[in-house]
């Protein structure tokens, strides 16, 4: 959970993002396609849960790996997972499925990037079309050698789909900040009212 002063600072950043970026030294933008990545993996018995289908954590690891590769490629250096939200599992994944994890940068802030991920599965030895089995949105922060956030190149959405994803990511960013601000306010109110320390 972000401390309150950070939530406020980030809300301010979001509101002032365009102004801040216009005064910051220019970093050339990078098109979405420059870092878009697909990670593929065949599921085996070692990937299963007690029900015999693939463990959700195995898929989440692949999602984080693919998104991390995209964030590193886009930002041109190390990037760490700051948050993962809206991970949806739409269909079970089975042993023998060839899973494709497709990731791209949807949105960039000052040092953070939202990476959108789609998970597709097809039988490894059949030519039937792959179906979507999951999706996720992750926020990565680009960091320097000391682990401190560093500025990232703005992403340049290319297609109409990229532009829609950029706009949707901005909505999610606003909601993340608003949700955290509301939670911080509730906690402070409960402490002030003597319900919790
Ligand atoms: C992510 C991290 C670098 C942020 O550092 P910080 O000192 O809090 O820096 P800031 O508050 O300036 O945040 C940096 C950016 O990340 C974003 N961010 C930070 N925490 C976030 C979260 N939980 N969710 C979404 N975005 C987040 C901020 O909005 C900011 O974006 P912006 O620069 O584009 O406006 C730091 O918390 C960290 O190192 N976390 C551990 C990451 C890690 O190890 N991940 C792997 C887990 S094993």
From TrEMBL:
Residues 1-35 are annotated as: Disordered. InterPro entries: Cytosol_ACT, HOTDOG_ACOT, HotDog_dom_sf, Thioestr_dom. SUPFAM superfamilies: Thioesterase/thiol ester dehydrase-isomerase (SSF54637). Keywords: Hydrolase. Residues 33-146 form the HotDog ACOT-type domain. One of its GO terms (molecular function) is long-chain fatty acyl-CoA hydrolase activity. One of its GO terms (biological process) is acyl-CoA metabolic process. Gene3D superfamilies: Hotdog Thioesterase. Residues 13-24 have a biased composition (Low complexity). Pfam families: 4HBT. GO terms for cellular component: cytoplasm; cytosol. CDD domains: BFIT_BACH. Belongs to the acyl coenzyme A hydrolase family. This is Acyl-CoA hydrolase. It comes from Streptomyces coelicolor (strain ATCC BAA-471 / A3(2) / M145). The lineage of its organism: Bacteria, Bacillati, Actinomycetota, Actinomycetes, Kitasatosporales.
